[in-house]
Q: What sequence folds into this?
C-alpha cells in the first residue's frame, strides 16, 4: 500500500499473440493476491506492465505501434 492508497496496476497486452496472452495470464492473480488493484486505464495506474511480441515482423511492428500509443497515453509525448 502507498499510505492508505491501494496500488494499482495496468497490464497492457499489445498484440493478439497467444504466447504473450499465456505469459500475462498469471500476472492478474499474482497482483490481486499481493494487494494490487487491476485497472484497464494505464493513465490511472501506479504501474504499467506491457507485453510485446516479436514472433514475426508483422507482430513486432504491431507491438511497437501499441507501445508508442501507450507511451503517448501516459505522458502525452510521442516517441
A:
Amino acid at each position: 500500500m502507498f499510505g492508505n492508497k491501494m496500488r494499482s496496476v495496468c497490464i497492457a497486452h499489445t498484440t493478439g499473440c497467444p504466447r504473450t496472452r499465456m505469459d500475462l495470464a498469471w500476472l492478474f492473480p499474482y497482483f490481486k493476491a499481493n494487494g494490487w488493484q487491476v485497472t484497464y486505464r494505464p493513465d490511472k495506474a501506479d504501474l504499467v506492465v506491457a507485453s510485446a511480441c516479436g514472433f514475426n515482423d508483422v507482430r513486432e511492428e504491431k507491438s511497437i505501434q501499441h507501445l508508442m500509443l501507450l507511451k503517448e497515453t501516459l505522458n502525452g509525448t510521442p516517441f
Summary: The CA atoms of residues 71 and 77 lie 7 Å apart.
